[in-house]
Amino acid sequence: MKFGFRSKIYIGMLSLLLLLGIVIIFAVSRILTHALLEENSNRGISIGTTLAARVAEPILAMDFLRMKNLVDETVRLSDDIYYTFVLGAEGEALVHTFKGGFPVDLKTVNTVADRQQYSSRLLDTGNELVYDYAVPVMIGGDRFGTVHLGLLRIRVQKAINHLILSTILLTGFVILIAGFLGTAFASQVIRRIKILNKSAEEALRGNLDVRTAPLLKKNCWEIMNCDNPECPAFGNTQHRCWYMAGTLCPTCVEGEYAKKIESCVNCSVYRKCSGDEIQGLAESFDFMTLSLKTHIADLKDAEETLKGQRQLLKTVLDATPDFVSLQDRRFVYQAVNKAFCKITRKREQDIIGKIDADLFPRQQVEIYRQEDRRILKTGEPLIKESRITGTYGVHWLHIVKIPVEDSDGRIVGLLCSGRDITELKRIQKQLNQAQKMESVGQLTAGIAHEINTPLGIILGYTQLLMEDAESGSQAGEDLRTIEKQTKICRKIVSDLLEFSRDTESIVSPLDLNRSLKNVISVVEHTYKLDRIDIEQKYDFLLPLYDGDKEKFKQVFINLLNNARDAIGTDGTISTTTRFDKVNREIKVYFADTGCGIPDDRIDRIFDPFFSTKSVAEGTGLGLSVSFGIIREHGGRIEAESPPSPALQAKIGAPKQGTVFIITLPIAQPGQAGAKNKINHHKKMNTGS
Amino acid sequence: MARSTLRFFLICVILSAGCSQEEPAYKVDLSKRETVTIRAEANIITYAYLPQYSHKVSYQRHHLLIEYLRQETGLNIKQIFPDTFDKHMKMVGQGKIDISYSNPFIYVKLAHRYGARAFARIIEADGTTNFRGQIICRADNRQIKGLTDCRGKRWIAVDPSSAGGYLYPLGYFIAHGIKKDDFQEIDFAPGPGGKQEKVVLAVYAGKYDVGSIREGTLNVLADRIDVNEIRVIADTPCPGWVYAARSGLEPETVAKIKQALLKLDYKLSDHQQILDAANITGIITSEDNDFDSVKELAAQIGMRLEE
Prior knowledge:
The complex is a heterodimer of chains A (688) and B (307). Chain A has 688 residues and is of the alpha+beta class. Chain A folds into five domains: 5-162, 2-Layer Sandwich (Beta-Lactamase); 208-298, no CATH class; 320-420, Beta-Lactamase (2-Layer Sandwich), CATH 3.30.450.20; 427-498; 505-677, Histidine kinase-like ATPase, C-terminal domain (Heat Shock Protein 90). Chain A contains 20 helices and 18 strands. In chain A, strands 2-1-6-5-4 form a five-stranded antiparallel beta sheet. In chain A, strands 8-7-11-10-9 form a five-stranded antiparallel beta sheet, with helices on both faces. Chain A is rod-shaped. The longest helix of chain B has 19 residues, at 55-73. Chain B contains ten helices and 13 strands. The mean pLDDT of chain B is 86. In chain B, β3 (45-49), α2 (55-73) and β4 (77-80) form a beta-alpha-beta unit. Classes of the chains: A alpha+beta (688), B alpha/beta (307). Chains A and B meet through α1, β2, β3 and β4 of A and α1, β1, β2 and α2 of B. β3 (102-103) of chain A pairs antiparallel with β2 (33-34) of chain B, so a sheet runs across the interface.
């Protein structure tokens, strides 16, 4: 059973009063009983002593009548005097007040020595309790007898009972009064505590606009005769000025409550307005809620700011292609970004709180652990490139791990940042290849230049010998074979020289439709011999393009020859021109129904000397030369094999084969156009 | 908390109960009774001091002397305390008092009425064989400046038979021309015992204008009242007190007692203690004719020895 504060106070107060009452009753009863018994004893001794003094003369005179009169008079003094008697010097009874003889036991039951003033003893007669007081009768230092006085205890007992009853009643009355006063006081306290409690509950519910402290009869500005509305305490009836910072009284100390209260306690406003502890508590509570409200508002603002910054940070982290993670000293993941989730193929909530062992293969985990421990131990960052292999293929990662320090410089975690450099690695590889090819090209150009003259001599002499050879002879046939192969060699040398030659571009407005038609008209007849048709789809709204006419013709011839070579015989080449008004681009499509390009080779088709054909059929420089020319003009050339469904729908490309797409951006009016892009550009193209 | 409070409460109650002041009652049986019987002792020589003072004073003054006599004579001498002068005299006549120590006037009455015979008399504290009576009044009584101013005043005396307390002062008044009738009233101190003191207290209280006492009474009361409040108007010399034997007491007994009394020597320290207690310095032999002057004074003041 739980008691409320009121019940506890009442129970405590009642218990205290009852306890106090009981202790008082016992203490007072004890004191009074002691006093009454003492008084009774003194009374008995006094009467006995008086009787002893008065009986001395009759004893000397052996005047029994006077002695008898004296003892009878003494007994008549009070109802509680049970008996008196006088014993002689030898202990014999001289006179007494008993009827029917003298009780023998009383002679010896309470003796008193000569040197004693008196002796008392409580006697139990069976019916009564009697205090017997014995007083010696002394004359000139000689013992002449003893006076005995018997006082009934019943009278003093009655008095004691009466006193105890009176004490109990009085104590009860006092307890009642104290109870009433205590109740009134407790009610006052409880009422104020209830207000405090209610305010506290309101505050817990979120309502911080509580008013707990009572209004003052006189406020600080009235006491100080102040009319300064800029003072924060001016007009504020709810809060006390000594709690407020920035009050403007001349005696006020700057600062918060803790700084100014020592000064405020000496202020007349504090002395007049400060109340008891409960009022102080209520005032403190009011100001506390006010402070809390202000702090909560500040906190909310800070939280909003923090939330925004956190969101911003998360956005930045998530938007960055680099993966980022933060681990604590126990290598538990505290934060990761989207890139990290992507590379680990896990959700953020599945990573946070985990360690490397939960996320990566055992071998990697061991490597990571050693690295992480070394960083924590040495404080030195780690930068490395790592090759990882998984179900998603081979990836190269550039990883940076740095220790995270707190404000005291202690390492509290690890920040890991990395990026996928697989593409970069691929390009680096291509660059290396291109550099190698460049070197090969330069070497080849030199060789070609050197062997061109001997080839010319060989061809010349071969033709001279052919003139001398008989028609149809073996020698003649052999010479034709030499002539043919020599021409092939010279063609290769010529292409190499063309590929490596640094030529000047002649830029002029160019109708690409016309240029394409001219090229097709030249090769169309030849292609038909191999039963290859050429479909032509022109966009007649195609704008003029600033470019080198001859070089574009060479590109078109190269792409058509490449298509013919891919088809072999019996096929179709589709050429299409389009103008993309939105992106202001001219697109030229060359689609063939050939064998197509394998996936693992399509990335290398623009490399120099890369060819799927035999040495006799091609040099492997056609597409590279075309790539370089288009790029020289600021455009780009791509290949799709087989064509995507979207591309099939767009230009009617076949489902198989290869489509080369030339994209040429049209300069905006006022822009420099392609002229700016075409400078003295080395013919040697290094590929994309 | 409630349990602790209850424990504290119980401890208080137990301690309070344990502090009872009741003493154990001793059981007595009042049903066993006896009848009071006083048996008189045999072969006792009774000695009585004329009750001019209270019995206590009489006892305190003479109990050492009686103890001395008992040891000295081997007699079973015991002091008894008659309440009044008349009773003293009657007890002498009745043979209840064997040895009477009285003033000269009582003696002459005893001798006249009952044939008692003096055998010794005392030497007073001042070394004389006479003692003195004193006529006193309040120190602040402006109406009485001399003896003649006592005329018409209220006079309280010790006893009609008191020598120093009445008879000698009366003779002194008569000798100075003041008769009994000249006083507004003459009263005597009420009995029994302590009469000398009662006279002083009556004058001290203002109930009487003049009082007559034996010399030395003021010293007896010095620790009870301020004796400076009492003025002595006149001193009346009279013969000292006398030891007399009743008629019929064996002469040998009287002789033993007389011899013992006369043997007391103030120079001996143990005797001095006895004599100081009795307010005397010695005892000398005496005979009946030593008190003839007293008999004459009695006749002079009209006192009849038979009454």
